[in-house]
């Protein structure tokens, strides 16, 4: 069916490049997902004129172009998805006949175009009385597609910024403690049969204090004459080789590796958004320049010469507004990418510092 349609309407085969990028794919391993571009085959001069078929209202003097755009739409109340759109347009400059093929994964654009064509607004793309009116309707349809490419990015970036702040805001108020070196003095305790405490390799002040306590312990626990002396049990010694308590895990109250993974995911989403916005800008600029070339008096030798320049100028102004909006969102995404890189570094340093501190504490406990 597709082959028959494209053959009957003489669709340029380059449109298949955009068509093949559609289809169900694994989002983590999508192929040609970001493929975008602009193709055209304009036949206005006598040398490049196509086949003339009066019965089909085909003069052979046509504007034929294809392009692909992307925008972001909600896939659920809390999730976003980048969606693709491919459009093919053929316009006969002598008869004012238009052919459109628009590909999209849902019916949003179909409902949008039907709503616009049934509107009674003066600029609605539903007037075909003259070649000029048909040309204006074609440009209005292009305008709808171009506006879609610049929609919703503001809210999508807002959600990414909010999530980044929620995860990483506390990095600005946290104190990252430097790792403490392990203790250099080791206490070695031994017990003689008499119950006296022998201390080695300790400072003199600590020795005096420990000796005084040991004398007190000996006097208070002295056994009656003739009774064997029992060794004194030392209490409150550090536990040996015990696993860390998950409730007191330093990572539990601050950051986890899941937080770091989520920051990485948001960074990838932001870079993807930056790429899509850049590609959209290139396509829109190329589309405007192409129509400006078409209405050039040296090329436009037909009925469009009268009001074609004014219509294209209006179309250019409309696309320029979308381009300014895209540029603003590109700047926001670039700032977000830099912020993500800085915050990811802070989180990584905090996790590394906490792990080192935990390992040193655990090592100090096992040393006893």
Mean pLDDT: 77
Strand-pairing-aware structural class: alpha+beta
Give me the number of helical elements: 8
The tally of structural domains comes to: 2
Shape: elongated
Distance between the terminal alpha carbons, to the nearest Å? 81 Å
How many β-strands, per DSSP? 6
Helix content: 40-55%
The SSE order reads: HHEEEEHHHEEHHH
Percent of residues in β-strands: 5-15%
Would you kindly provide a written description of the structure presented here, covering whatever features stand out?
The protein is α+β, with helices and mostly antiparallel strands and 368 residues long. The chain has 2 domains: 2-19 and 36-167 and 257-363, no CATH class; 188-227, no CATH class. It contains 8 helices and 6 strands, in the order H-H-E-E-E-E-H-H-H-E-E-H-H-H. It has helices at residues 2-8, 15-19, 108-117, 131-149, 153-168, 204-220, 257-294, 308-367; strands at residues 38-40, 62-76, 79-92, 98-104, 188-191, 197-200. The chain has a 4-stranded antiparallel sheet with strand order 1-2-3-4. Strands 5-6 form a two-stranded antiparallel ribbon. Strand 5 (188-191) and strand 6 (197-200) form a beta hairpin. Helix 4 (131-149) runs parallel beside helix 8 (308-367), helix 5 (153-168) runs antiparallel to helix 7 and helix 7 packs antiparallel against helix 8 (308-367). The longest helix is centred in the last third of the chain and has 60 residues, at 308-367. The protein is elongated and about 85 Å long. Residues 185-202, 234-238 and 240-253 have low confidence and may be disordered.
């Amino acid at each position: 069916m597709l082959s028959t349609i494209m053959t009957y309407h003489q669709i340029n085969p380059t449109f298949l490049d955009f068509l093949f990028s559609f289809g169900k794919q694994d989002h983590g391993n999508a192929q040609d997902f970001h493929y975008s571009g602009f193709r055209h085959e304009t036949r206005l001069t006598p040398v490049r004129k196509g086949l003339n078929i009066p019965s089909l209202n085909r003069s052979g003097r046509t504007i034929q172009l294809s392009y692909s755009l992307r925008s972001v739409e909600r896939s659920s109340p809390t999730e976003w998805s980048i969606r693709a759109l491919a459009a093919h347009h053929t316009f006969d400059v002598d008869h004012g006949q238009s052919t459109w093929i628009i590909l999209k994964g849902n019916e949003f654009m179909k409902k949008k175009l039907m709503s616009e064509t049934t509107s009674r607004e003066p600029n609605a793309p539903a007037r075909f009385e003259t070649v000029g009116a048909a040309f204006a309707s074609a440009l209005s349809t292009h305008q709808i597609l171009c506006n879609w490419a610049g929609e919703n990015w503001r809210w999508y970036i807002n959600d990414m910024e909010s999530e980044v702040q929620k995860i990483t805001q506390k990095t600005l108020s946290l104190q990252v403690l430097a790792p403490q070196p392990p203790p250099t003095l080791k206490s070695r305790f031994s017990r003689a049969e008499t119950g006296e405490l022998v201390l080695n390799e300790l400072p003199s002040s600590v020795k005096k204090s420990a000796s005084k306590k040991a004398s007190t312990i000996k006097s208070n626990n002295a056994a009656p004459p003739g009774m064997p002396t029992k060794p004194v049990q030392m209490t409150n010694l550090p536990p040996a080789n015990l696993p860390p308590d998950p409730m007191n895990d330093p990572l539990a109250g601050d950051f986890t590796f899941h937080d770091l993974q989520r920051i990485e995911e948001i960074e990838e989403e932001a870079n993807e958004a930056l790429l899509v916005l850049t590609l959209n800008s290139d396509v829109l600029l190329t589309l405007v320049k192409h129509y400006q070339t078409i209405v050039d008096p040296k090329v436009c030798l037909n009925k469009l010469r009268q009001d074609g320049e004014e219509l294209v100028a209006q179309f250019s102004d409309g696309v320029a507004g979308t381009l300014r909006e895209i540029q603003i969102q590109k700047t926001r995404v670039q700032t977000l990418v830099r912020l993500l890189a800085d915050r990811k570094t802070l989180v990584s340093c905090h996790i590394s510092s906490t792990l080192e501190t935990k390992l040193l504490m655990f090592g100090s406990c096992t040393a006893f």
